[in-house]
Design goal:
Elements (H helix, E strand, L loop, with lengths): L1 E3 L5 E3 L11 H12 L5 E2 H8 L7 H16 L12 E4 L2 E4 L7 H14 L4 H9 L13 H27 L7 H10 L4 H13 L3 H19 L5 H12 L20 H12 L3 H21 L2 H10 L12 H18 L5 H14 L7 H21 L2 H13 L8 H17 L3 H17 L3 H18 L3 H17 L8 H16 L4 H4 L2 H12 L16 H11 L3 H9 L10 H15 L2 H11 L6 E2 L9 E2 H13 L2
Length: 645
């Protein structure tokens, strides 16, 4: 079965024949499940998305639509056998098809690959060709459809421009003039499109037409918007007038965003943008990887090493925002380090090792990968100390910090790392690492329950961030203050639990736009769970909460809160050991609490053993952003359960 939504919604069987999907509502249900990309959509959400004013029997109607779709998509399914395409999951439904079987998912994946690897342009070519019209073209214009249609159209335009850019960068693209001419005629406000058209005209030997295109763009922007063209268009005009060789697109040249700046300047710009957060952070990561790939294509080993090691952006969180991208950076660093060999320049080797340590975020790694990353951190630190290079040492210590989550109970160790980074950064004027040192010490003080010290570090970090233009710092310290409010809500005369929850909600809204999905996903539900545990209340059961990576450890408690004891017992038996990251103590405490409530003595004993070295810490507070209360409380409960006869 294949589903297409880039145009009218349709489903095609393996032999190419269309499935009868039914009426507009049936198609909208299927389209909404496609848009969820495999995630469960609750019944309440589907009802709200399908009807502005839901009828009294909306849920029954929805179930009828789902049943009809199941018959259409699996006509040969035996009676009473469970559906495999549209499955019931919790309080809603999910679409279970591989991404290759859904055209919009194939398109998005091809675009992502082309962003990372220009050599994947052929896949992007194919993916763009499957568009048959506006996405979800025959679905009524509900708010969710309009949002999704707008998002996908922006991705399509990006794909058209990315394909053209890759072809032009590679020395091809003389046949792009007509296509790009139509593109700018339809979307005249997209400055990058005008630049691509001018480059294609120049490549086709039409220098005068290329300049004329840029001047048309200038006239349009000035006359209709009162704006001058951006710096990229202005630089391109200068390059064309000079006949710059950089327009010729040699494959050995840097062929990513900011081409005329050169790879090192591009990485420096990406490093600066990373501190701004939001879209700038997302673009900086993408541009950094593109710069590394371009440097590798030159075959210049030392250039590649410098490009990889130049992105020394301080990192505070032990879960990567884009694990696949981080793995690509680590792989490039390891390839380059191997090629340099043991006699390579120690400064370059140290930066490559530090990059491996920083990018190998512990939550996303296997045991072998963790061991390699830990060794890389120690080797980078040793090289930096031998070289007496403070900037390299600060970078290496960042890696040591991120590899310091090997077991629960290491807050004091991390505080020492943060103190050394802060001292180095203060003495050698490394303001971004001074911020990192403060944030590490904030986390450590929070883990140890010293809210006064943590508050002092938060205030100092905010003052530094004001001078370094690092707005993400305020997002993190705001979460710390919400965490402090949660603790005070348990004290006589303190704020209410509802007030603390509202503080967390405000933090969640601010974090949403920060460009840090590795930090964001699941944090708000976990904070609410911690708040409820502080007040001895059951876990929240709101089906709209996205538990993200913390779902396996939270699920037994959520099921217990719903009086689903046997399902909770099954879920607890399936809980893995927590990743070695900022939240490992919290996850062990959730495991311990569920084991105690269910009388699972062996699991309780295992959790107690894992938590024994963390008895002086606050669960989850090592993040500096939330807390589940003292580890000692969960440890005592788990020991009592384990020893019960």
């Amino acid at each position: 079965m294949r589903i297409d939504v880039l145009g009218a919604v349709r489903a095609l069987r393996d032999d190419g024949s269309p499935a009868d999907l039914g009426g507009p509502r049936h198609r909208e249900v299927l389209a909404r499940l496609v848009a969820a990309e495999g995630r469960m959509v609750t019944t309440d959400t589907l009802v709200d998305d399908l009807w502005t004013d839901p009828p009294a029997r909306a849920v029954g109607a929805l179930r009828t639509f789902v049943a009809a779709l199941r018959r259409a998509l699996e006509p040969d399914r035996p009676p009473r056998s469970p559906p495999r395409v549209i499955v019931t999951e919790g309080p809603g439904y999910a679409l279970r098809l591989s991404r290759e079987d859904v055209d919009v998912h194939r398109f998005q994946d091809a675009l992502a690959r082309a962003r990372r690897t220009p050599d994947a342009v052929a896949d992007l070519d194919v993916a763009l060709a499957v568009w048959r019209g506006p996405a979800y073209a025959d679905v009524p214009g509900s708010p969710w459809v309009r949002r999704e249609r707008t998002r996908l159209e922006e991705l399509r335009l990006e794909g058209v421009e990315l394909r053209a850019r890759i072809l032009l960068d590679s020395g091809e693209g003389t046949d792009l003039v007509a296509e790009l001419g139509a593109h700018v005629a339809e979307h005249p406000w997209r400055e990058p499109a005008w630049g691509l058209l001018a480059r294609a005209l120049y490549r086709a030997g039409r220098q005068a037409d290329a300049l004329a295109a840029l001047r048309r763009a200038r006239t349009m922007l000035v006359d209709q918007l009162g704006l001058d063209p951006g710096a990229d268009l202005q630089r391109l005009e200068t390059d064309i007038l000079r006949g710059s060789v950089l327009l010729e697109g040699a494959r050995t040249a840097w062929t990513g965003p900011g081409a005329r700046l050169g790879p090192r300047t591009t990485v420096n710009l990406a490093r600066t943008l990373a501190l701004a957060g939001g879209d700038a952070l997302i673009h900086s990561r993408r541009d950094r990887l593109a710069a590394i790939q371009a440097a590798e294509r030159t075959g210049d080993l030392f250039l590649t090493a410098r490009i990889i090691g130049a992105y020394d952006v301080p990192a505070i969180w032990s879960r990567a925002d884009d694990p696949e991208q981080s793995r690509a950076v680590v792989a490039a660093a390891e390839r380059t380090l191997t090629a340099l060999g043991p006699d390579g320049p120690p400064g370059l080797s140290g930066r490559l090792l530090a990059t491996i340590a920083v990018e190998s975020r512990s939550a996303d790694l296997s045991g072998a990968e963790l061991r390699r990353a830990h060794q890389a951190a120690l080797r980078a630190e040793a090289l930096a100390r031998d070289l007496a290079d403070p900037a390299l040492l600060a970078f290496a210590l960042n890696g040591v910090f991120l590899q310091s989550f090997t077991r629960p109970g290491l807050a004091t160790v991390r505080d020492g790392i943060g103190a050394e980074i802060l001292d180095l950064a203060t003495r050698h004027e490394l303001p971004n690492f001074a911020v990192l040192g403060r944030l590490i010490r904030l986390q450590s003080a929070s883990a140890l329950g010293d809210l006064d010290a943590a508050t002092a570090h938060a205030e100092a970090a905010e003052q530094l961030a004001a001078t370094t233009e690092a707005p993400l710092v305020a997002v993190l310290t705001r979460w710390f203050r919400a965490r402090a409010t949660a603790v005070r809500s348990t004290e006589p005369g303190g704020p209410s639990a509802a007030t603390a929850a509202a503080h967390y909600r405000a933090c969640e809204d601010a974090l949403l736009a920060a460009g840090m999905p590795g930090l964001h996903r699941g944090l708000f539900p976990l904070a609410l769970l911690g708040l409820r545990l502080l007040h001895d209340r059951p876990a929240p059961v709101d089906p709209h909460l996205d538990w993200g990576p913390y779902r396996p450890w939270a699920r037994p408690l959520v099921l217990l809160a719903q009086d689903r004891g046997e399902q909770a017992r099954t879920a607890l038996a399936a809980v893995p050991e927590p990743p070695r990251d900022h939240m490992q103590e919290a996850m062990w405490c959730l495991t311990a609490r569920a084991a105690v409530h269910l009388g699972e003595r062996e699991i309780a004993a295992h959790a107690a053993a894992a938590l024994s070295d963390a008895c002086a810490e606050q669960a989850g507070a090592g993040s500096g952003m939330l807390t589940l209360g003292p580890v000692s409380r969960y440890l005592a409960e788990a020991k009592a359960c384990a020893e019960a006869r």
